[in-house]
Amino acid sequence: MTDSDLTGQTVLVTGGAGFVGSHLAESLTDAAEVRVLDDLSNGDAADVPAHARLIEGDVRDRATVREAMDGADVVFHEAAMVSVPASVEAPMDCHGVNGTATLQLLDVARQTDSRVVLASSAAIYGHPESVPVPESAPKRPASPYGVEKLTNDEYARVYAEQYELETVALRYFNIYGPRQTGQYSGVISVFLDQARAGDPITVEGEGDQTRDFVHVDDVVAANRLAATTAEPGSAYNVGTGSSVTVRELAEIVRDVVGADVPIEHVDPRPNDIQRSCADVSKARDELGFEPTVSLRDGLATTIA
Ligand code: NAD
Hints:
Blueprint: E1 10-14, H1 19-28, E2 33-38, E3 53-56, H2 62-69, E4 74-77, H3 84-89, H4 91-112, E5 115-121, H5 144-163, E6 167-172, E7 174-176, H6 187-196, E8 201-204, E9 210-211, E10 213-215, H7 216-228, E11 235-238, E12 244-245, H8 246-257, E13 263-266, H9 281-287, H10 295-303
Parallel strand pairs: 1-2, 1-4, 2-3, 4-5, 5-6, 6-11, 7-10, 8-13
Antiparallel strand pairs: 9-12
This protein binds nicotinamide-adenine-dinucleotide.
Nicotinamide-adenine-dinucleotide is lined by residues 15, 17-21, 38-43, 58-60, 78-82, 97, 119, 121, 172, 174-175, 182, 186.
């Protein structure tokens, strides 16, 4: 258990103009010196907190990364091409950003002696055999994106074991919250936009797919715990430990928005994951992680 105190530290948030990264940067500026490295391909400079220094650049560029990491105690690596369909369309491009750039960042961290907390994903588990999914579950990613996240997750472990680099991989489940407005935003922001516009909410397939939706504030808390744990070198699921069906989600969104809109079913997404739910007991036991935001409360604050 740690107190997640980063007072006086220098931290770098890659992808800090994006959804998760901007919330993380915001939570750190009171106590730490915060740098953000982002190429603004899917982020917005306006979302970088005023007290953070924005370095506009590409995580693929070693010199830029080296300079941004100079003197950094902790690097939170959030930058990525986050679209699963884009990774299927252009796996080589995606691998450059998600795969090679992450390996390079770990390598630079050996020089700068920075702790690296990196954004892994539930996508590494592919179609889980059973839920909730513990960290030890079989890993059979269903997309290039998932393969890249799994590779990063494994590199983080190997860098910890081989080079004694302090690394923690956080396997995010489905994150939601304010500012999730990028081009590849999740199902919650799509449903919220539809309900608020008075349009039908469109559910892909039967809507019986389950997802574990975790609020971005809880993801920020997990990152802070990972940055300060006395025992780095591991990977942790970050979710809530419970799930809802997509159909239930549509109904909750409609209810919270107070919109009298129909729920329509459209064609299922090919190869969609049927069941997803995190077992968060390892993060709870080892990091002291405790998800605090219920789906209804989180949706209400997202709308506000
Ligand atoms: P996001 O797109 O909002 O943020 C990613 C940021 O990275 C963007 O600001 C983008 O401009 C930046 N970026 C992209 N390519 C870059 C490059 N080459 N150089 C520098 N910056 C670059 O996405 P997010 O939802 O905040 O995701 C953050 C991390 O969490 C990602 O690594 C993502 O794969 C992972 N993740 C997210 C979720 C989720 O539900 N949002 C789930 C699992 C994992």
